[in-house]
Amino acid sequence: MRAGPPVAGRSSIKAAAGLVVGLAVTLLGLVVVTFLIGRVVPIDPALVVAGDRAGPAAYQAARVALGLDLPLHEQLLLYLWNVLNGDLGRSTMTGLTVAEDVARVFPATVELAMAGTIIGVGLGVPMGVIAAARAGRLADHLVRAVALVGYSVPVFWLGLVGLLVFYARLGWVAGPGRLDVVWAYTIPEVTGFVLIDTLLAGEPAAMLDGFRHLILPAAILGYFSMAYVARMTRSLMIEQLGQDYILAARAKGAPEAQILWGHAFRNILVPLVTVVALTFAHLLEGAVLTETVFAWPGIGLYITQALFAADMNAVLGGTLVVGVAFVLMNRAADLIHRRLDARLRNEAAQ
């Protein structure tokens, strides 16, 4: 009689199946909600396609072509089928398919979110560690005050102030956009990331120009991510600094820097990786206002322009892509956490 698969193997398969089913249900719900939003918004796609001066026959033909003459449940099924086949419709704003537009603008958003995450994590982690080490003291209060401002100040206001001070007054950074006009149409788009494309083109001056355009919007986003990362790092560190092994290390006379970075910080790396992944996901979906203020040609600006142009295919397609990216990043953060945390791996294996 042949033995069945190991218990650990069955548990892993069951966990993977549950993850896939949960992800599928979440994405299905996202698509359905996106579709319903498109039907609730008081914009008539058929009128946009046919034009304001179209006659009844042309208007009705546009409704038939868009499938708006079908019952709502049939429209939903048709929308689901098109999305599964990668068809997000055609943009009336650009004349291209929404999938082509998203593929063109999404790298700009990813580049901005990555730069903001690097700034936020690079500043937020040491600030959180210092605040935890000086809990209740001046340094802790300063870090918490800076983080509170990061949560409270509207991003569009901070972006406008940053442009006024650092671009218009001081001239330390470049203005809106990704590149100056002299470079915008001469650098071939290979990856969609302006710093990489300028490097591949062998144009250091263009690369410097791209960095000068990137640094201010990335710093604005980085400030908001820094507030979240610093708060989470502080909480995780305070929890670790109260553990018995920290008291034992101090009793043995270990240096404070070693206790902070060699013991306590080392034990928060697993949840901190999850925090960083979630920070990146939040910046992907939260870059709309920043891109609008800085005319950064990413998916946030694309959605905003499409909304003003009443281009619902572009609005829904862009929103859906951002939502899918956020869901996938959340799932990836959960998988990373489970993979790195030995306790969760053991629980899954039991």
TrEMBL record:
It holds the Pfam family BPD_transp_1. It comes from Tistrella arctica. Signal peptide: none annotated. It is found in: Cell membrane. This is ABC transporter permease. InterPro entries: BPD_transp_1_N, MetI-like, MetI-like_sf. It is a multi-pass membrane protein. PROSITE patterns: ABC_TM1 (PS50928). Keywords: Cell membrane, Membrane, Transmembrane, Transmembrane helix, Transport. Residues 106-337 form the ABC transmembrane type-1 domain. Belongs to the binding-protein-dependent transport system permease family. The keyword Transport applies. The chain crosses the membrane at residues 12-37, 112-133, 145-168, 210-230, 268-289, 301-329.
